[in-house]
Amino acid sequence: MVMGEMTQEVGIAVIGGGPGGYAAAFRAADLGLDVMVIDEAPRLGGVCLHRGCIPSKALLHLSQLINDAKASGELGIVFGAPTIDLEKVRAFKNRVVDRLSDGLMRLAKQRGVQVVQARAVFEDSRTLRLQGADLAHIKFGHAIVATGSSEIALPGLTFRPGGRVISSTGALELADVPGRLLVIGGGYVGLELGSVYAALGSQVSVVEMLPRLIAQADEDLARPLVRRIGETFEAVYTRTKVADLTEGDADVEVTLEGAMGRTVERFDRVLVAVGRRPHSRGLGLEHTKVVVDDRGFIQVDDRQQTAEPKIFAIGDVVGGMMLAHKAMYEGKIAAEVIAGQPAAFDAVAIPAVVYTDPSLAWAGLTETDAQAQGREVRVARFPWSASGRALTMDAPEGLTKILADAETGRVLGFGIVGRDAGEMIGEGVLAIELGALVEDVALTIHAHPTLTETEGEVAELFLGSTTHLLPPKQR
Ligand code: NAD
Questions:
Q1: What is the pTM of this model?
Q2: Distance between CA atoms of 132 and 184, rounded to whole angstroms?
């Protein structure tokens, strides 16, 4: 430490102001602790709010409007082709982000949480050096590392500002609507942002190295979405890799190599969406006892505590599902443990949602995982073609699925594909979390006609009989 440099003592230093970091900070402040959040960005919200979940959902809402307007012709209401004013679209998206980030900054202030813009580096297990701030050092009682993750580029490839090869951040900036867009990676980002550009008018192709798109979800659940992608995208290449990629002035030349052999194609833009890597390098963690595994994830126990008792870590940087709500849950655990409460990560189910059209959501055990684990489960599926509500919404292609222990009937997993699947998965998560039996779900009265009714009917079907479908034996 250099003499004369400013040092401040804080109870908890939270490094990273994304959903995990701000949830941890706010919970700690509510528990009466003295908290500072340090982030390189000037405002709270992290990738999720500024360059991820929120802007993408604003754009996906607009894509849904376009798709609905197009589909309504068949239902007797004909709209003309949409006129897309990109400037206004960007303004809408930015308005949403600004409103939410203003709210977060206000909440931080009202709670007395100090927000400092700087890059934080550990000097030892009690001290952080702040780069880029007037304040040079922090002596902390506890630290919570919530530094998140960033997009993986392909080997030898970098995302150049203004370049034709873009990451999700670039795609969300919506510089233009490219004529032909290649999406590399058929996971969450690839399908969500690919769908946005397809709705806006791009000819979208997707290349995925695995045998199928969105391989995290059970195949039967993914099927209606994969079918729709097949209809709305120009091409879907599975079991395929990008063998070569050359960015020229006018386009990008891409060599695809896979099940269909080797082809060379030209695209106006290429979106790389092949996953994210944790932000654990360059943090000075080597000056502490914190253990980082060979993939860069910080090792923590079920209390989010690292090998250095005063340092906790949460969110994408500790691995597992790289989802904002999982980070927020972990952040609150860390804050409570530091406050002396008997908290630990004991959530049974973390919901996953893909906000496409149709949307896809699942929680708890998947059928694929159950098979891999050799676990005896029973499954029931309720097709939305038998749901009055789904038909009134012209959404008959959906499916609601329940998975339960074969012997006890305890609910272990839930899956939904169809309109608003993400809004409905909460019931499944709650059932799993409460240790509900399938019978409990079946005996819960669901409003008629609603999409959530399919969650009650699938449970009834599991038990042998439901009103709107013949029992399996008679079908
Ligand atoms: P992902 O892991 O969901 O998907 C990446 C896909 O790319 C995988 O299917 C993988 O097999 C494929 N892939 C990897 N390398 C490839 C290659 N060289 N060529 C072709 N395919 C390749 O990752 P993502 O879509 O980049 O999203 C990153 C993270 O962000 C996810 O882990 C997710 O948790 C999070 N996210 C969540 C949401 C949501 O909750 N709705 C939305 C966007 C992102």
A1: 0.96
A2: 35
